[in-house]
Specification:
Chain B: Provides the precursors necessary for DNA synthesis. Catalyzes the biosynthesis of deoxyribonucleotides from the corresponding ribonucleotides. Chain B: Its EC number is 1.17.4.1. The complex is a heterodimer of chains A (about 180) and B (about 325). Chain A has about 180 residues and is an alpha/beta fold. Chain A is built from 5 helices and 7 strands, in the order ββαβββααβαβα. Chain A has a single domain, classed as Flavodoxin domain (Rossmann fold, 3-Layer(aba) Sandwich). In chain A, the strands form 2 sheets. In chain A, strands 3-2-5-6-7 form a 5-stranded parallel beta sheet, sandwiched between helices. In chain A, strands 1-4 form a two-stranded parallel ribbon. The longest helix of chain A is centred in the C-terminal third of the chain and has 21 residues. Chain B has 12 helices and no strands. The chains are: A alpha/beta (about 180), B mainly alpha (about 325).
């Protein structure tokens, strides 16, 4: 597991000896075939930077996280949900949607229950700001509900919470 | 004074087939995909536009760009390099060499702009100004001091604040010109720099947070206090610098909002909550849209009136649609 390079001597860093190796955690009890069902109405992806994860934590809603590693058991949505997806920015188009999110949306049931997207990103990426949200919204024909930067400001948290409340209320009135 | 250069004591051949932190590979790939050179941007198309600026506006623009050149030079030759000995993984070291090189590309690209638009005399005058402006020199000195200090976490804080905050008093101006359909090719080049700085700030901030996980709660608090103190120190100086540059054209207050907005993003890159309230981060929409065309609220379902929007019914896309 640990790469041999872990023994390297870095200068002046007493704290750095044991800190390496971010290797994926061992696979849980589920095998690759086992899907983990979730009734959460907010499903998100976040890389190890945890920006998006910090944002959704501030919302105080019940959430489910799309797993980071292929060996982890995939999520299966069982109720209509909104997806929060970050864009790591740059050249746009191909590669904008994190591969873990593509894998998740490759499941037809997950696509069918998707009702809206919230994009995370950085305006520094120009045209590609929240591009992953745009791509998914267009492909699945759901609205791109909101965009926020990095881990979101307090105002973003308020607006998203209010927006989601209104959104689900309206949806429950128009559908069914 | 002479100082001992900090270098790694021991290096092993880097093995990119043994990765400890996926983020190193992701960011390396992102940086490589984003690679660009100023020669690819048709700056000469801005000559006509340049001639429509008043002499004072031209001088302001030159000064702003020499200020940015100084920061990029620091980051390329000292900042990014100073992070290498603290790296947690060999791949992180490699990413810093990429960052250092790109900062040198940025620094050089301002000279491309200068040689396209201005005379040698004007260029020399602007560089002389940059060595004489107290607030510019002070901001360089503050950051340089921290790079030479002995705390790896503090170096990363200083570096992230440079990448994600200190550039923006300068970046404002080309976005402003672009919003008025002036110097649009120059603005395209600056946008490439802005994009790079976002990845740099994100990555260094991420590595900072990884480092923070390894230290005591007490140390974490110390670093947090330090971060906010440094930000305030830099902020006060930025305000002065902003007045030096922009008072003549009456834009200083507008620039300050842009500073607040970016200071918040710098803090978030470091994993801290935004500090400036929304009431002082309401960046001029024209500037925001010069930065990112879809950043305004009209692009959001929640923020818009909403009533005109027909809620889509989920369409069953095919699996093949997702093979991208």
């Amino acid at each position: 597991m640990a790469a041999p390079a872990a023994q390297r001597n870095h200068v002046a860093l007493p704290t750095h000896a044991a800190q390496r190796v971010e290797v994926s955690p061992p696979a849980g009890p589920q095998k690759e075939t086992g899907l983990v069902p979730t009734g959460s109405q907010l499903i998100y992806f976040s890389s190890s930077s945890e920006n998006t994860s910090r944002f959704v934590a501030k919302l105080g809603r019940e959430v489910a996280r799309i797993p980071l590693y292929a060996k982890d058991a995939p999520l299966l949505a069982t109720r209509p949900y909104v997806l929060v997806v970050p864009t790591y920015g740059g050249t746009g188009g191909e590669g904008s949607v994190p591969k873990q999110v593509i894998r998740f949306l490759n499941n037809p049931q997950n696509r069918q229950l998707l009702r809206g997207v919230i994009g995370a990103g950085n305006t520094n990426f120009g045209d590609n700001y929240c591009m992953a949200g745009d791509i998914i919204a267009a492909k699945c024909q759901v609205p791109h509900l909101y965009r926020f930067e990095l881990m979101g400001t307090p105002e973003d948290v308020t607006r998203v919470n209010q927006g989601l409340d209104t959104f689900w209320t309206r949806l429950s009135q128009t559908q069914k | 004074m002479t100082e001992k250069v900090k270098l790694l004591h021991h290096v092993e051949a880097i093995n990119w087939n043994r990765i400890q932190d996926d983020k190193d590979v992701d960011v390396w790939n992102r940086l490589v995909n984003n690679f660009w050179l100023p020669e690819k941007v048709p700056l000469s198309n801005d000559v006509q536009s340049w001639n429509t600026l008043t002499p004072a506006e031209q001088q302001l623009t030159m000064r702003v760009f020499t200020g940015l050149t100084l920061l990029d030079t620091i980051q390329g030759t000292v900042g990014a390099v100073s992070l290498i000995p603290d790296a947690l993984t060999p791949h992180e070291e490699a990413v810093y060499t990429n960052i250092a090189f790109m900062e040198s590309v940025h620094a050089k690209s301002y000279s491309s702009i200068f040689s396209t638009l201005a005379s040698t005399k004007e260029i020399d005058e602007a560089f002389r100004w940059s060595t004489e402006n107290e607030n510019l020199q002070k901001k360089a000195q503050i950051v340089m001091d921290y790079y030479q200090g002995d705390d790896p976490l503090k170096r990363k804080v200083a570096s992230t604040l440079l990448e994600s905050f200190l550039f923006y008093s300068g970046f404002y101006l080309p976005m402003y010109w672009s919003s008025r359909a002036k110097l649009t090719n120059t603005a395209d080049l600056i946008r490439l720099i802005i994009r790079d700085e976002a990845v740099h700030g994100y990555y260094i901030g991420y590595k900072f947070q990884k480092g923070l996980e390894k230290v005591s709660e007490e140390k974490r608090q110390e670093i947090k206090d330090y971060t906010f103190e440094l930000l305030f120190e830099l902020y006060e100086n930025e305000v002065q610098y902003t007045h030096d540059l922009y008072d003549g054209v009456g834009l200083a207050e507008d620039v300050k909002k842009f500073l607040h907005y970016n200071a918040n993003k710098a803090l978030m890159n470091l994993g801290y909550e935004a500090m400036f309230p929304a009431s002082v981060t309401d960046v001029n929409p024209a500037i925001l849209s010069a930065l990112s065309p879809n950043a305004d609220e009209n692009h959001d379902f929640f923020s818009g009136s909403g009533s005109s929007y027909v809620i889509g019914k989920a369409v069953n896309t095919e699996d093949e649609d997702w093979d991208f």
